[in-house]
């Protein structure tokens, strides 16, 4: 089984994130940025962290989406729904492969 190394870099000023993996990086972008890209998959990941730690649970769910996107060969992700309410946090993103 191949191990996947993931480092998440968040920029609070612009809302962008990049996941660095052994095979490259996955960038978080808006829908307009993927107009000339190939859609690969819609990915939903959940994290149970309770209501007190909802913020960190949502970040973990987002990290899982980015890692899954990297595994399918995506270069970019567009966030769909992000749900931090309740004890289970869920992130959904659309994975795309974009030309260089």
Describe the structure.
It is a single chain. 18% of the residues lie in helices and 43% in strands. The chain is built from 1 helix and 6 strands; from the N terminus they run ββββαββ. It has a 6-stranded mixed beta sheet with strand order 1-2-3-5-6-4, with helices on one face. The chain has a single domain, classed as 2-Layer Sandwich (Translation Initiation Factor IF3). With 100 residues, it is of the alpha+beta class. This is DUF4156 domain-containing protein. Keywords: Signal. It comes from Seohaeicola zhoushanensis.
Layout: helices, strands, pairs:
Layout: E1 7-10, E2 17-21, E3 24-28, E4 38-48, H1 54-71, E5 76-83, E6 88-97
Parallel strand pairs: 3-5
Antiparallel strand pairs: 1-2, 2-3, 4-6, 5-6
What's the short story on this structure?
It comes from Seohaeicola zhoushanensis. The protein is an alpha+beta fold.
Order of helices and strands: EEEEHEE
Q: Give the DSSP E fraction (strand runs of 2 or more residues).
A: 35-45%
The helix content, as a percent range, equals: 10-25%
Major β-sheet strand ordering: 1-2-3-5-6-4
Low-confidence spans:
1-16
CATH architecture descriptor name = 2-Layer Sandwich
Mean pLDDT: 81
Assigned CATH class: Alpha Beta
Helix count, DSSP H or I runs of 4 or more residues: 1
Gyration radius over CA: 13 Å
Q: Kindly report the CATH topology.
A: Translation Initiation Factor IF3
Number of domains: 1
Shape assignment: elongated
The secondary structure category is alpha+beta
CATH-level-4 superfamily name? Hypothetical protein apc22750. Chain B
Question: What is the rounded distance between the termini?
Answer: 29 Å
Largest sheet: 6 strands, mixed
Total strands: 6
Protein name: DUF4156 domain-containing protein
Signal peptide: 1-19
Organism: Seohaeicola zhoushanensis
Keywords: Signal
